[in-house]
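Pinned message: reference record for UPF0173 metal-dependent hydrolase C465_03635
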Amino acid sequence: MELTWHGHSTWHVVVEDTELLIDPFFDNPKTDVDPEELDPDYLLLTHGHADHIADAAEFEDATVVATPELTGYVQENFGHEHTLPAGGMNIGGTAECGDAWVTMVRADHSNGIENDPDYSGGMPTGFVIGDKKPTQESDADCTTFYHAGDTGLMSEMVDVIAPYLEPDAAALPAGDHFTMGPAGAGIAADWVGADVVFPMHYDSFGPIEIETQEFVNEVKAAGAAAEPVVLEGDETYTLE
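Predicted structure (tokens):
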């Protein structure tokens, strides 16, 4: 599984022959990528805030994976015709997306379509992406990536996501102010039980500027077994 961070919460995930793009927002200082350079099969949207769907219209051929409310919005306003499942999915559900299995999980955050108050974005979410369908039986051969979306620290991480979905790697918001800060992300790194954790949702604008060493320090202070990895913008990490 290849994980490429394009700044903020934007991740390009490749599982065998399937490409997934999460929360497209390329107007951030960590990326030099033009959205036209990417051609994902699936477009995963955690919630409707502008810094997570700003460039969704660039990928109208991709199949949208989001809540029914957000799916309906992008279909009507951005021209997307394909969704999975038809009409969207919801928290707790798992969908087969080509060679990947995508499970939608909770995120503790607000939501809404900022440029259109007549629309609700539904519940904010995160995604767990694996190369096998999750079951109650532990599978050491399954490779799994957790994108936490915009969230604060929540007990679901330790009660549900860690024991059931068993992420090998996790991308955790660390910019504070709108999400967890480094301390909360450090605790989350321990709770989710991943081998590798990445900070995201930081340095895109003033209120969320941080020193990434704080994230590294807080992961260690929490006693997490995870290795904290700070990626450069547009850098790829291969998860095996």
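Pinned by admin. Summary line: The mean pLDDT is 95.
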